[in-house]
Amino acid sequence: MASMAVQLLGFFLGLLGFSGTVVATVLPHWRSTAYVGSNIITATAYMKGLWMECVWHSTGIYQCELYRSLLALPRDLQSARALMVLSCVTSILAFVVSVMGMKCTRFARRSFIKSPLVVSGGICFVCAGILSLVTVSWTTNDVIMEFYDPFLPSGMKYEIGLAVYLGYAAACLSLTGGLVLCWSSSGNRSESSLHRQRNQPSSPPPAFDNMYTPAPLYRPPEALKGNHYPSLCSLSSNGYRLNNYV
Question: Which of 143, 89, 94 has the alpha carbon at shortest distance from 120?
């Protein structure tokens, strides 16, 4: 029962990480306008994401425009897109595999493939978290390097957006959920092996007769075979009677 609760905990943590990854991928708040220098007071704010670029006006108007050309985008943006999409696909695969391997589902109940399925789902969640973490870390490094570049004008500098922080949180949740699933599966395998050893019938004790080997039969040596006295039966059979000598 405790292992089932641990599996549910890891599964829901991974599911929350997957949801956060999807939201962070779609949101345009990866880079926001930095209010430094002459941009301290401005009527517009620019935001850039993986799929669109948005402008917010002080009047409350919010306009977004999708990137029209894929090949015209910078290579770092193309790589970030690919990694985040791959992270979402890996999370979906982890979701499906984990559902099939959890104890609370009826798929392959009382089968030995339950534990490997849970481990596979946990590994997929860990891989999805690593992909998301690499993407947001890469973006953070680019934003910081451009912000502290003295040759870049103040109007072209950006700050880290809300979607990047959400990506960090989603990556941590996915990593934690995957590790919890793997740990719960290792506990289940140790418990099953211990239960199998306890239920294994013990070997019967050895029979008492077979504990000691029987002693060999006594056989007199060949030199003593002809030195024994004749018995009464042998004397009577040779024609001599004992009454004749008494």
Answer: 94
Global pTM reads 0.72
Per the CB < 8 A criterion, the answer to whether 136 and 164 are in contact is yes
Q: What is the pLDDT of residues 183-239, one digit of tens each?
A: 887 755 544 444 455 555 555 555 544 555 555 665 655 554 555 555 444 444 444
β-strand pairing of 31-33 with 44-48: antiparallel
N-term to C-term CA, the chain: 100
In three-state form (DSSP H/G/I as H, E/B as E, the rest C), the secondary structure along the chain is CHHHHHHHHHHHHHHHHHHHHHHHHHCCCCEEECCCHHHCCCCEEEEECCCEEEEEECCCCEEEEECCCCCCCCHHHHHHHHHHHHHHHHHHHHHHHHHHHCCCCCCCCCCCCHHHHHHHHHHHHHHHHHHHHHHHHHHHHHHHHHHCCCCCCHHHCEEECHHHHHHHHHHHHHHHHHHHHHHHHHHHHHHHHHHHHHHCCCCCCCCCCCCCCCCCCCCCCHHHCCCCCCCHHHHHHCCCCHHHHC
